[in-house]
Write a structure and sequence with these properties.
Residues 44-185 form the C-type lectin domain. This is IDD protein. It comes from Dasyornis broadbenti (rufous bristle-bird). Pfam families: Lectin_C (PF00059). The protein is mainly beta. It folds into two domains: 40-187, Roll (Mannose-Binding Protein A, Chain A); 191-251, no CATH class. 12% of the residues lie in helices and 35% in strands. It is built from four helices and 18 strands. The strands form five sheets. Strands 3, 4, 5, 6, 7, 8, 9, 10 and 11 form a nine-stranded mixed sheet that branches. A three-stranded antiparallel sheet has the order 14-15-16, with no helix packed on it. Strands 1-2 form a two-stranded antiparallel ribbon. A hairpin with a 4-residue loop joins strand 3 (40-42) and strand 4. Residues 1-13, 18-27 and 92-100 have low confidence and may be disordered.
Length: 254
């Protein structure tokens, strides 16, 4: 009850009147980022996603995703796939398909089981360690190959927003050595105020409006946060706080 505290007078020792003042009121903290720059965050899976435009074959794409602590994307639910399809991935002239159609490698492989009259097979998750995921439907097209027994998955989405937001897409089984854009997926992470990635258990200042917060990174979230309070700069009437450094000011006096 701030109003009651400010208006109430209590008697101290010796009959002195003491007035209580609110020195600082804690504000709710909003952390604006859970993914590094260039990645898209999806709350439903607590994951980050990024499309890489540089054309790589499937195996090189796997290694690129691993270097950023991720893997080629697989999907756990239809809502997650719809989130991916709805994003504007900024695929420009660098893409390797028509401008109105966008394809990228994802983390599935099509295992060929029969070569009778047509290629027959089934989808598998490329990495056995992946969490529970759903498998794609039968592919729209398959790259015919006499030698390879495994083809790799490409997800196609569309440039037109009306098609993307309706969830239109297609699956293709392609030669794994073709070059294509690709979609990486990684767990959400702690990102500090200077856009550095923070490892589990370390102290950091989260991205947001308060450079004087110190938090612990736990499961990609800032926890156990402590705020520092700053004294106003001495001998300065007008000043501006530095948005990135705690207790650093710029004096605006003439």
């Amino acid at each position: 009850g701030k109003e009651n505290v400010d208006s109430r007078h209590n008697r101290g020792r010796g009959g002195d009147t003491t007035r209580f003042h609110t020195v600082n009121v804690a504000q709710p903290v909003r952390f604006s980022r859970k993914c590094p720059t260039g990645w898209h965050h999806y709350e439903g899976t607590a994951s980050c996603y990024r499309v890489y435009l540089n054309g790589e074959n499937y195996w090189d794409a796997v290694q690129t995703c691993q270097r950023v602590n991720g893997s080629l994307a697989t999907f756990t639910a239809d809502q997650e796939l719809r989130f991916i399809l709805a994003q504007e991935w900024d695929l420009e002239e660098k893409t390797f398909v028509r401008k109105d159609q966008r394809r990228f490698w994802v983390g599935y492989q099509y295992v060929i089981t029969s070569r009778n009259h047509s290629l027959e097979g089934h989808w598998e998750v490329a990495y056995k360690g992946s969490s529970e995921v759903f498998l794609p439907p039968d592919p729209v097209g398959m790259a015919m190959s006499e030698k390879e027994n495994v083809l790799c998955a490409q997800l196609q989405c569309f440039h037109l927003p009306t098609l993307r937001h309706r969830g239109f897409h297609s699956w293709y089984a392609e030669n794994c050595y073709e070059k294509s854009s690709f979609l990486c997926k990684r767990s959400q992470t702690c990102v500090d105020i200077k856009d550095n990635i923070v490892d589990e258990g370390y102290y950091f200042t989260p991205k947001g409006n308060d450079p004087c917060l110190s938090c612990t990174c736990h499961n990609g979230e800032p926890e156990m946060c402590v705020a520092a309070l700053c004294e106003r700069p001495q001998g300065c009437q007008q000043y501006r706080k530095d948005p990135k450094e705690c207790c650093k000011f710029t004096c605006l006096d003439p």
